[in-house]
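Cross-posting from the modeling subforum.

Setting up a comparison between two proteins and wanted a second pair of eyes on the formatting. Protein 1 (sequence, then structure tokens):
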Amino acid sequence: MASHTEISPREAADRLAVRELIDAYAHCADRRDAKGQMSLFTEDTRFLVFMDATAAEPTQTLHGRESLAPVFDNLNVYRATTHFNGQSTISMDGDDRATGESYCLAHHIGVDESGQRTLMIASIRYLDEFTKQGGDWYFAERRLMVDWTETRPSTP
């Protein structure tokens, strides 16, 4: 754990901005704002999905902001989602680079053809590389790590 006996106002502002970036990602996902979600990434971003967090290779690798659209649009298969962001660690690397790990419990409500409602909960972690461009923070790389999922029937 980092010791912060003194922190500059600039570093405090950068740390807050990175945390707000993490939260904006979840907010856009739950509002189905794929364009807003995509705008949080650099043009040349990398997005890697590990459906099994213990796997050596990602299940899916995307390059570039525009490649993210189908992934974010895929959330539309659910009736609703709620992403609860938990703890996060951020390590600053100079004035315009940072890395971090953040935890999230993502709740997904689905309805199948017969009308049966299900709740899928995913415990996920994001391993991130952030960059500051033009005064704003962006995801340069985001690794979505699925630690576990549970799916069960749900009632309205």
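Protein 2 (same layout):
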Amino acid sequence: MRLRHKPWAKDKLSAYPQYIIQNPVDWKGKWDQAFSRKGPIHIEIGTGKGRFITEMAKANPSINYIGVELQESVIVSALDRLIEAEVPNLKLMNINAEKLKEYFEKGEIARVYLNFSDPWPKTRHEKRRLTYKTFLDSYQSVLVNQGEVHFKTDNQGLFEYSLKSFSEYGMLLKYVSLDLHNSDYEGNIMTEYEEKFSNRGNRIYRCEVQFR
């Protein structure tokens, strides 16, 4: 799907420093100060339009959340949602997930969420998948010891690839659902894509994995 360019996006992101972290490298090692309180930090890589991360922040006020999104033209939609919701425990970052360790110290992040990531189905694009080993290196570099990655997708090929990637990396598989919406899992918060794909009859896959 082609992404519609929004030339005004950069200016809008700059206009809301209370929601969009402007200079994230400055907060490395002191993210509690960015939120003006202590608490575990969960991040979503590829936060899209922000439905999941905003609803998670509402449901879990004791946890601090950061939505990470590379595309300016996408994260402005998440910003609009955050402005409307006014949840104090959520910030957004317009950065590349490959460079997480430039912005966070080891142990600053408690959990990583990956929701409906681009599957990059062609073999030559494997390194772009958010469950490829270099991205797993990036997540491990900022997570607490035995930190977790929670992953959802409707793409069976990507899910199977990811399970293999997690296993080869030596991660512990804690939970797997091959049909989330017909399982006994409670507390699921849907993304925009999840609702759309589910309404089409697509099966939703989900897993929770832990670094050893």
